[in-house]
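Incident log, support desk, overnight shift.

02:14 A customer reports that sequence design results differ from what the structure should imply. Their input is reproduced verbatim below. On-call engineer (initials T.W.) acknowledged and began investigating.
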């Protein structure tokens, strides 16, 4: 069961439903040893706010330009930066249904960055609450 969860999740960007969140996080943390960073966008009122929250929570570099090109670049860099001494990282994005629809371009950018990356240094889970 856990191998199946990790193979569907690792190194990808996907939506996750509440009923599967607990078991997925258990596998990521307990079995894989991943670090989970929660990015709560529910208070953000614009895409710029959402990117600022993400940059702060994930410690994006100072040169991060708060736009989709910069998001793609940083997410791609992080996904490609696997080092054996570093655990994989899970970015758990919490948003409302309205935000998910409104910020489709952010979601699309993250999906592109993850699909172009090889490896499992970063996994992105988008949880609509």
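02:41 Re-run completed on a clean worker. Output:
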């Amino acid at each position: 069961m856990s191998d199946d969860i990790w193979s569907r999740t690792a190194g990808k960007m996907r939506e996750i439903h509440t009923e599967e969140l607990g078991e997925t996080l258990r596998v990521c943390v307990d079995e894989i040893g991943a670090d989970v960073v929660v990015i709560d966008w529910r208070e953000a009122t614009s895409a710029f706010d959402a990117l600022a929250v993400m940059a702060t929570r994930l410690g994006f570099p100072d040169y991060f330009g708060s736009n989709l090109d910069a998001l793609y670049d940083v997410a791609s860099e992080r996904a490609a930066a696997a080092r054996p001494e570093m655990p994989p990282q899970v970015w758990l994005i919490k948003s409302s249904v309205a935000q998910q629809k409104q910020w489709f371009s952010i979601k699309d950018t993250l999906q592109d960055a993850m699909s172009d990356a090889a490896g499992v240094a970063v996994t992105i889970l988008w949880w609509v609450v």
